[in-house]
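Hey, can you fold this one?
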Amino acid sequence: MSDKKIKVTLVKSIIGTKQDHRATVRGLGLRKLNSSAELLDTPAIRGMIHKVQYLVKVEG
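Sure. Predicted structure:
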């Protein structure tokens, strides 16, 4: 499971969101709108994505 990768893209602005949600987005390696990051598919990353699922899009 840890060798699989998932692509995460920031599709909604973090303006007006909670401070800890902003920190989670930064922790995922996303900076600007429409920026993407390829991350390992681990339970920790899945939890971060679940927390900010209304801001991001996940592929494969």
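Residues 5-59 form a domain with the Ribosomal Protein L30; Chain: A, fold (CATH 3.30.1390.20). Let me know if you want another pass with a different chain boundary.
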